[in-house]
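Posting for a labmate who doesn't have an account.
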Amino acid sequence: MSAEITSGDLDQFKQDLQATPGAAALQKAVMNNGINATAENTDSKVAMTPTFSIELETGTVANQKQSGRCWMFAALNTMRHGIQAQFKIKGFELSQNYTNFWDKFEKSNYFYENVLKTADQPLDSRKVAFLLATPQQDGGQWDMLSALIEKYGIVPKSVMPETYNSSKSNELNGLLNLKLRKDAVKLRKLVADKANDADIEAAKQKMLAEDYRILAYALGNPPTKFDFEYRDDDKNYHIDRELTPLTFFKKYVGWNLDDYQSIINAPTADKPYNHLYTVEMLGNVVGGREVRHLNLDIDTFKALAIKQLKAGESVWFGSDVGQSSDRQLGILDTNIYKKDDLFNTDFTMTKAERLDYGESLMTHAMVLTGVDIVDGKPTKWKVENSWGDKVGEKGYFVASDDWFDQFVYQVVISKKYLPTELQDVIKNEYAKPTVLAPWDPMGALASR
């Protein structure tokens, strides 16, 4: 049964509006100033003062500019923090353009393989439509960067600096996605025409050669050997010759990436806590590391992040940064806008409801570098962003603990901080995690 909106309904709605206290004044304020400015809560600015009981010294922030590589910047930031401290190099950065090159190249191959796997399905199948909607993009997740580093290593930013196209990626993304969709037409036709495996592979290799050329023109040539030359904070000169990207990573970062685990907080009915999950068609390196998420309750989730911060290690995290946030002030707080009061309407949804109904998912990755503990409980968190130093407190943001509860979905934690029973879950379920659909919100790519 359906019911139309009648003229009587409209008359009643108008009467309800006129009967709302202060409606005329509020209407003028919203029309002239916008929703957020009118609903702004000044108390939030006071509560979100950037003072923390636990705070890591991490230096100046990076700037991803007009690109969606936040996940990459955030992960490389966690690695550069140790290099800055150990080798006394303030302001040091790892090359985000180098990992960007290999990410886009590997994503192209990943796309081709998924096109071939789904070539027997019609174009209007949900999986094929999902695949073709965005063949590749700037966004990603922690395990995807780990897969790149395990295969290609990393290099200093001075060895492969930013280009126009890495800092402003829309032109490259548009061109590469056009190319990949065109290639999908050919690959699907080869399968439909019963071409043999050798012919299909030959066609794919030609496509990859063209992709490599496009990326080389746009981003530059990724180095295979280089000298690392720098002067430290004490003005001492250093040079390390004939390094490869893999030897540089092993010598200057030295992490075993298998020691780090993606932890999620997804309180939806389809994802019981204390289990491991992966997402179909989510990744970049064919044959490389796959995404593995351990879903935990929010209290355990936060306790692990605090434990790592207390040990002096920053924490990569993924969140929905556009929710209840002020970019310029650098405040992330559920109380920053009083929209319920302004409109006399209840906008409340639970975290699970927002995930299930498409209201929220992970959009942006940043780094936790501090937390304020009062009476044994966290009240606010220090956040290193990658939007340059003209926003927030010289690029650093402050997140309230309630905002963390509601809009943080992922942290990356060293397994040594996990209790034995959770380490056992990872060991026991790693080979056979629960597989989520490609469009599951936990498969969202951080790309703001």
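Reply:
Got it, the structure tokens are right above this. The two ends are 42 Å apart (CA to CA).
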